[in-house]
Amino acid sequence: MTDHDAHAASLRHALADELQRVGELHSPQWRRAVERVPRHLFVPEFFRWTDGPNGVTLWAPVSGDHDPDRWLELAYRDETWVTQLDRHITPHDVTEPVSGDPTSSSTLPGLVVRMLEYLAVADDTTVLEIGTGTGYSTALMCDRLGDGRITSIEVDPGVAANAAAALRRAGFAPNLVNGDGLDGVPGRAPYDRVIATCSVRKIPRAWLDQTRSGGRILVTVTGWLGGYGLAMLDMGDDGVAEGRFLPGTVSFMIARPQAPSPISDDQMSTAFKALTEATSRAAVVGPDIRQDWAGTFVTQLALPAAQVKTISIDGGPLITYYVDTATGSAASLTPEPGGGWTVRQSGRIRLWDDAESAVAIWRRAGSPEIDQFRIRTDGHEQRVWLDTDDGPVSWSLR
Ligand SMILES: C[S@@+](CC[C@H](N)C(=O)[O-])C[C@H]1O[C@@H](n2cnc3c(N)ncnc32)[C@H](O)[C@@H]1O
User: Fold this and answer.
1) Is the CB of residue 228 less than 8 Å from the CB of residue 255?
2) Residues 167-189: what's their mean pLDDT?
3) Is 150 in the pocket of ligand 1 (CB under 6 A)?
4) Tens of pLDDT along 189-217?
5) What's the CATH code, domain 260-363?
6) Atom of ligand 1 nearest to the CA of 257
7) What gap in Å lies between CA 292 and CA 249, rounded to an integer?
């Protein structure tokens, strides 16, 4: 064993200790996988978050070429390492910090193993993974269950090719597919487990069709307002999956086909004009509800087709706009000098009335955390609900 290999092995051991200490890692089998899978082969280069001027986030490239010891240590940190920005920029493409939106990464190892523990696998469990990313989580599953039981699909061709190469280098040979994971991988179905490391607004019917009855689906449910909840659903005999949200503040990048089309300048100016002419009232709930994890989730359930933007016009106050581009409905929330907010609403859907009703129900129920919500889907209608003293309250997405 070279010094480099010995160092990497000791870093893996330390990572496993750390994950066990913080309560993410429990089973000896997953511990063995963490100790064996060389994460550094899956993150030969990545981006590190840094502060840019005026509070802008920049991403600095890190690779083994410049400072191998530092890179190796970072590779085994319990941190998410971003590997692609804006769907095309890789660390290889840049020498200086750059701006961009993360579009692929190696997920935080603590979260990866937490999700793997939730899968509750046996030695012969078959798994479909959506979002291969770097291939690190795929490799952990191959180590634990064997290559032949793992299928992983990645939408981005470049990301998929890098993952395939890294998995080969690390000695793993799962069934890899480059394509849209929302369709699943029917050729190898049914699976005992489906695990997604990208989030979805709506759980696709294909996943239900491809999960064995009694099997499990683990996926982060999101939307377009930045709310997230990690959901664990068990598959019934009737083609319906039902389950609950798990504790914690888990977020993943949204599955690419379910990302919203951005609000266009035209849509925004139509909304501005309609809102200028709209009547106003004092808001009961302010946009600062977004500072609350479950509050954001509730707002998103109530406004499933809305997007949010915060804009200051001509140096004025920061105004928060909610816009539903499908119907052109909009709401604006303007801060008042003495505190509180004024809301204006336009269009067919009174967006903020709906948001306030949902938040009122949630508050009356004691502002429960995300793990008090439940979920059920037949692939057509996805229902999320909360049991309250007045009975269940649910929100549907079709
Ligand atoms: C957080 S990363 C995956 C992390 C990965 N499990 C790891 O350990 O490296 C999410 C990945 O999901 C992929 N993705 C997004 N939408 C997808 C889709 N519809 N089907 C398959 N993969 C998708 C992204 O390209 C990205 O690589």
Assistant:
1) no
2) 98
3) no
4) 999 999 999 999 999 999 999 999 999 99
5) 3.30.160.690
6) 19
7) 11
Using the mean position of ligand 1's atoms as its centre, give its distance from the Cα of residue 156 in Å.
8
Give the closest residue (by CA) to ligand 1 atom 16.
255
CB of 234 closer than 8 Å to CB of 214? yes
In angstroms, what CA-CA distances link 95 with 61, 70, 90?
7, 17, 11
pLDDT of 187: 97
Q: What architecture is domain 107-256?
A: 3-Layer(aba) Sandwich (3.40)
- Residue ID of nearest Cα to ligand 1 atom 14: 131
Q: Is 181 in the pocket of ligand 1 (CB under 6 A)?
A: yes
* CATH 3.30.160.690 placement within the chain: 260-363
Please give the number of the atom of ligand 1 that sits closest to the Cα of 83: 27
Read out DSSP for 266-313?
Answer: HHHHHHHHHHHTS-EEE-SS-GGGGGSHHHHHHHHHH-TTEEEEEEES
Ligand 1 mean position to 331 CA, how many Å? 33
Burial 284-312 (b: 16+ CB within 10 A, else e): ebbbebbebbbbbbbbbbbbbbbbbeeee
Give distance in angstroms: CA of 132 to centre of ligand 1: 5
Domain(s) of CATH 3.40.50.150: residues in the chain: 107-256
Asked if residues 297 and 227 have their Cβ atoms less than 8 Å apart, the reply is: yes
Rounded Cα gap, residues 287 and 272, in angstroms: 18
Q: How far apart are CA 8 and CA 153, in angstroms?
A: 28
Sign of the Cα torsion 37, 41, 42, 43 reads positive
Query: 262: burial class by Cβ within 10 Å (0-12, 13-18, 19+)?
Result: exposed
pLDDT at 366 over 90: yes
The token duo for 79 is 């941190």
pLDDT in tens, 2-19: 888 999 999 999 999 999
Report how far ligand 1's centroid is from the alpha carbon of 131 (Å).
3
Q: Percent of the chain at pLDDT above 70?
A: 100
Residues with catalytic roles: 105
Amino acid present at 192: D
Q: What is the mean pLDDT of residues 137-160?
A: 98
Residue closest by Cα to atom 17 of ligand 1: 255
Provide the pLDDT for residue 63.
Answer: 94
Cα 129 to middle of ligand 1, angstroms: 9
345 lines ligand 1 (CB under 6 A): no
Residue written as tokens 């609350």?
292
